[in-house]
Structure formats: structure tokens, C-alpha cells
């Protein structure tokens, strides 16, 4: 199992003690950091009071960013208990406690009291074999006409391991962009945008790592073999083995 880090909160507390004052991009578990989340938010046309589901919410950076920028109520669900505990810990004291909450669980078993007005999912489906079923679970949690924004890894399944989502490839199910797009539509979504953001991502990687690893705490420090995983990912995006797609969809009535 790839996402089996424990003691993440303790590691973050230690990193913050060692790097006082440095914010770091610790809680954005995808390529493109907070800038990528900003692009997804633009596509969701959210207003204050909307309800948003973040599927596979990780350490909670995207959920907090959405709430902070839009005033929406965001629920994050994630299958890894240690990440959910860390997401809650990082939210405490930010003033966002009334807007953001995190639940531990599999989206397959999640039954919300009320359908959400919007959803995001970032860098989760690479671990899911049946992608139509996965996006059907998301559709089931949404009101008709609700928006879905995705930030997804697509391309060749033949990759150098480890990658951020898989240590050895046994739990990786990466497919080409066309196949992923078809699965999302088969799950009951209508496409508004399906954009190849790989050029943007390459420029982001160059800018972010121009002077080597950024100073201060960063996500690879929390993960087993974190730097190798990020370097392999960046290389596959640079040589075209992988691409990043940004999608915006509407849940069909
Ligand atoms: C690469 S991380 C991305 C986290 C977050 N979306 C972000 O971009 O910061 C993938 C996350 O998906 C979660 N995950 C994988 N399968 C899941 C499932 N079936 N239901 C909910 N979460 C899942 C993992 O625990 C992990 O936190």
C-alpha cells in the first residue's frame, strides 16, 4: 500500500520547529501546488455558501484554499486515516473550522446527507482500476447540474517507480487521456473543458525547482522515498510519458 505514512502530524511539527517562519507547500499533494487549485476554483464558479466535496482530500490544502477563497463549505473525504488526522490538525487554528471538515473513508461507501453543489478530485484516480465506477460514486454525491473539476495524471502505464501515487506500480492504473475522459463521461458527466496542461506544468516545475529543492518544509519530506518519487514524476512529465489534464464537467440531470 502506497499511502501508509504514519506520524505525519509529528513530522510536520518537527519540520516547523526546524524551519521557523517557513510556510512551505506541504499540504498540496499534486503537481502544480496552490496555483493548480486556483485554476480548478476558477472553473467551478463557486459562490459563498455553496457546498463542495473534495474526493481524496489528502492533507487538506486544496479544501482549505477553496473555503478561504470562495466562502464555500468544503467536505474532504480520504481513505487514509493518518492524512485525515493531519488535515484536521492543519485546519485547527486557521479560522476555517466552520467551513472545512474532513471524513475518513472510501468514496465508494460515502453517503452524504445532502447532494453537493460541486466537487473536485486531484491526483486520485491513478490508483483506481475501474474509473467509470469511481466517477459514478462521485456523481452519486452531487446534485443534478453540479460541477466537477479534476486535475489528473494520464499517459503511459509503463513508468519508472516509485511515483508519488505508487511505490512499485502494483497499485497504479494510469491510462491515456482519451480513455480517462471517456470514463468520466460514461459516469454521467458532460464536458465543459478537457485541457492538456502539461506545458503549464513543465513551466511550473522549471520555475519551482530552478534553484533545486525549495527551502523549508516540503511534501517529499513527509513521504517514504519522497524525493525519488517527485523526481521520477517530473521526468515523466518532461519527456512526455505522462501528461496532466484539467477537466471541468457538469453532472447530467
Ligand atoms: C496524491 S494524493 C492527493 C491528495 C489531494 N487530492 C491533493 O491533491 O492534495 C491521493 C489521495 O487519494 C486518497 N485516496 C485513494 N483512494 C481513495 C478512495 N477510494 N477514496 C478516498 N480517498 C482515496 C489517498 O489516501 C491520498 O490521500
UniProtKB/TrEMBL annotation:
Residues 52-145 form the Methyltransferase domain. Pfam families: Methyltransf_25. CDD domains: AdoMet_MTases (cd02440). Keywords: Methyltransferase, Transferase. One of its GO terms (biological process) is methylation. One of its GO terms (molecular function) is methyltransferase activity. InterPro entries: Erg6_SMT_methyltransf, Methyltransf_25, SAM-dependent_MTases_sf. This is Class I SAM-dependent methyltransferase.
Amino acid at each position: 500500500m502506497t499511502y501508509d505514512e504514519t506520524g505525519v502530524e509529528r513530522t510536520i511539527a518537527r519540520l516547523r520547529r526546524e524551519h521557523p517562519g517557513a510556510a512551505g507547500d506541504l499540504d498540496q499533494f499534486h503537481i502544480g501546488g496552490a496555483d493548480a487549485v486556483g485554476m480548478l476554483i476558477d472553473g467551478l464558479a463557486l459562490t459563498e455558501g455553496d457546498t463542495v466535496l473534495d474526493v481524496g482530500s489528502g492533507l487538506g490544502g486544496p479544501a482549505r484554499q477553496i473555503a478561504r477563497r470562495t466562502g464555500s463549505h468544503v467536505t474532504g473525504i480520504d481513505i487514509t486515516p493518518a492524512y485525515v488526522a493531519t488535515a484536521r490538525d492543519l485546519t485547527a487554528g486557521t479560522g476555517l473550522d466552520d467551513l472545512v471538515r474532513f471524513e475518513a473513508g472510501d468514496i465508494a461507501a460515502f453517503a452524504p446527507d445532502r447532494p453537493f453543489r460541486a466537487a473536485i478530485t486531484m491526483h486520485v484516480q491513478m490508483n483506481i482500476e475501474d474509473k467509470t465506477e469511481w466517477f459514478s460514486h462521485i456523481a452519486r454525491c452531487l446534485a443534478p447540474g453540479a460541477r466537477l473539476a479534476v486535475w489528473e495524471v494520464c499517459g503511459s502505464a509503463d513508468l519508472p517507480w516509485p511515483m508519488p501515487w505508487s511505490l512499485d506500480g502494483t497499485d497504479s492504473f494510469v491510462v491515456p487521456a482519451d480513455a480517462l475522459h471517456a470514463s468520466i463521461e460514461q459516469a454521467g458527466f458532460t464536458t465543459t473543458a478537457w485541457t492538456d496542461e502539461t506545458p503549464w506544468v513543465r513551466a511550473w516545475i522549471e520555475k519551482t525547482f530552478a534553484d533545486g529543492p525549495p527551502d523549508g518544509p516540503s511534501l517529499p519530506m513527509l513521504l517514504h522515498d519522497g524525493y525519488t518519487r517527485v523526481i521520477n514524476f517530473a521526468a515523466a512529465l518532461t519527456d512526455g510519458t505522462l501528461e496532466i489534464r484539467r477537466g471541468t464537467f457538469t453532472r447530467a440531470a
